[in-house]
Amino acid sequence: MATFTGAERVRCVFWFEETKSATQVQRKFRTQYRKEPPSRPTIYSWHKNFIQTGFSVRHAKSPGRPRVSDATVEQIRESFVRSPRKSTPRASRETGIPNVTVWRVLRKRLHLKSYKLSIVQHLTVADKVVRKEFCMKMFHRMQDDEKFLDSVILSDESTFHVSGNVNTHNCRIWGNENPRVALEHVRDSPNVNVFCTLSKERVYGPFFFMETTITGIAYLDMLQEFLIPQLDEDVQEGRIHFQQDVAPPHYLGEVREYFNTLFPGRWIGGGAPIAWPPRSPDLTPLDFFLWGFVNLYCRLAHKNNTTIATFADDIALLAANSDPVVTSQHLQHHLKLLQQWDRKWKIKIDQTKSVQVTFTTKRITFPPVTINNMRI
């Protein structure tokens, strides 16, 4: 595309004003400058710009996007004052203002932010009183014995749902500051149940229940066969304060009798020497950190071509395909995702305790997969 200097543009405008003919301007241009002249539309455009601006033959600068009026801004502000939980598409429908304008005004003009809601259990007035009393008791124990928390082992089960979860990504509140609003949520029926305990030094578990619903007997059997053998030395020396919540399986008479024998006066729970307040998951790090971390881990690690399965305390990563090379590729890709996540959170996978097992009716060899660059 040909370029023209400012002097050439001005000369063309003067010639056009004199002759009123773009063709004659082109002829004069060829004669004087010895090169191809601008097109007739270009000459018309230069002349028009000069007439409109009075001094410039260049295109006038665009004023840009028109500024949203103060009345529109106020209309959007009032809409969200009335209902701060509404979405921007809904506000757009109600006000007739484009959705992108609503969003831009909220962020740029009103300086509002979108806050994600948290899902919590409903607390009654009585619950709050019991929670306060428990926290004060723990506070006094920690004042009397600065190593008290070192002896506490916290336990909990978590239910991982396949469906029925509230999508908190779409639960938003617009405001100048975090409104600290939470959604009340009643626990749904279980799907996969996991037990874990946490102390200052380590994590015990996880243990995966084969039962769809955890009963008191199943819970007691897990304690006797899985958890307590790992704590045997500390149990014998009386160094442990064991905590469990008030879930129905924990309240079984045999379970409480078992704890009274193992931890006389030193266990926390329903009907325990130290009563645990009901509906208080926010008081244990398993609920306010560990389960959320594990749930996020599982979501990020999930792939369409592989499946994660559990049996007792073992976790299996499964892939199936008629092509053995593709099968191994799917497994290896998933393992790489797991390793990336583990490195981010400084978690180590022990490849020596992992094994690759192949089930096939054909005499074919599956390419090996690796963890941390070591074949399993």
From TrEMBL:
One of its GO terms (molecular function) is nucleic acid binding. Residues 5-54 form the DUF4817 domain. Pfam families: DUF4817. It comes from the Eukaryota. PANTHER family: HTH PSQ-TYPE DOMAIN-CONTAINING PROTEIN (PTHR47326:SF1), TRANSPOSABLE ELEMENT TC3 TRANSPOSASE-LIKE PROTEIN (PTHR47326). This is DUF4817 domain-containing protein.
